[in-house]
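It would be a great kindness if you could assist me with a short task in structural biology. A protein sequence and the structure tokens that stand for its backbone fold form the material at issue. I should value your view on which stretches of the chain appear to form regular backbone elements. The record follows directly beneath this note.
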Amino acid sequence: MSLTPKPDTRTLLDLVQLWHDHHGHTLKSARDRLRSLRKLCHALDNPRAEAFTAQHWAKYRTQRLQEVKPSTLNHEHAYLKAMFSELERLDLWHQGNPLAKVRKVRTDETEMAYLDHAQIRRLLAHLKAKPNRDCYFITLLCLATGARWSEAQTLRAEQLAQDRVTFVATKSGKSRTVPVSPHLAGQFRQRRSIGRLFGNAYKAFQSAVQDLAIQLPPGQLTHVLRHTFASHFMMNGGNILVLQRILGHQSITMTMRYAHFAPDHLEEAAKLNPVANLGRHFVDTHKKTATMDG
């Protein structure tokens, strides 16, 4: 006589806690991720996990898009999908991933601003004139290395060695080392020989941008410095693969957003197209002739 398996009564919140206990707590952003997943479960009315389907997500997605940007919804999608996948890998969930075949919402490419040379000079001069130069040096470091603001702001003296800066508290969790000029490295070393080199200066940067009336897209305040480094790097003839390593992008797709800044970007289109070598007689050289009245 076969026994009927007991129904799985665990809810989405139960799975979130299970995921956190066995994997989530190891993530760099563990606390924020746990908070986001719990909030998402409540928004979904915390259904029984076994009964949760792609159709439930589709209904939630339609309602949610009236409240948030597509990119925000896609983050929620990714978090929940990754939770199910990880529990499957750990052999803690055997009912399949309900979001495995669900596509993310299509989003428009984000506008990326960067500073030109005149704006860079004005910004640095403005910050250098301040009594506290922490913001000046953080900005200078971001512009010289492409570092994220958080990476530069938390830099310690121990991370400077032989005119190289090693960023350890990175978004990917992997450290990366970027060369800097001997002059710049010397300025940083003069600040202190151990511990954090700078204090928190985000608000000081925000005030400087407002004082100088620099117009930036929403959400790109300090990140404009990273975009500025990458854009000028490519405009000056830099290699896209080298840029990927400097910025610490795990995928070249992220770095390719800057490819169009290269001086020779897509120049082959003019040289390698099928009509490039057909001869001048295929090109319309008709010239308009001037006419005179009378």
Observations:
- The first helix runs from residue 12 to 22.
- Residues 288-294 have pLDDT under 50 and may be disordered.
- Residues 12-90 form one domain.
- DSSP finds 13 helices and three strands in the chain.
